[in-house]
Amino acid sequence: MSTTPQGSALDELRAAYHEQLNRLAAERDAARRQARMAQAQADVARADLASLTSRVHELLNAAARHLPDLPAVEASKGPVAQRALPPASGDSEAGKSGERPARAA
């Protein structure tokens, strides 16, 4: 009759082991879901950034057609950089004298 207590202890260990495996599998699955959600959000953010970058370039180019001191901006294929921004208003000669630049036709 000494096999019954040992078998019972073994069954308890086996049950605890399976419970831990199930808990770890659930945590793994939750982590995978979170990773997929984070990847989807990152994809949306990249698409939004590309759209905004394109729109900013369009607006800067439209402004450059009306403001001769503002250079046209080329659309870049890389990350958005400061080189795409126009010089500060105080950097132009017309801005320093307080005169408004002539508007292009």
Question: Can you put this structure into words, describing what you see?
Answer:
It is a single chain. The chain is mainly alpha-helical and 105 residues long. It is 66% helix and 0% strand. The chain starts with a helix and ends in an 8-residue tail after the last helix. 0% of the residues are buried. About 17% of the residues have low confidence.
Short structural description:
The protein is mainly alpha-helical and 105 residues long. It has two helices and no strands. It starts with a helix and ends in an 8-residue tail after the last helix.
Helix count, per DSSP? 2
Structural class: mainly alpha
State the helicity in percent bands.
Answer: 55-70%
Major β-sheet annotation: none
Shape assignment: rod-shaped
Low-confidence stretches at least 5 residues in length (pLDDT < 50)? 80-86, 90-100
| Ends apart, CA distance between termini | 105 Å
> What is the H/E string?
HH
Radius of gyration: 32 Å
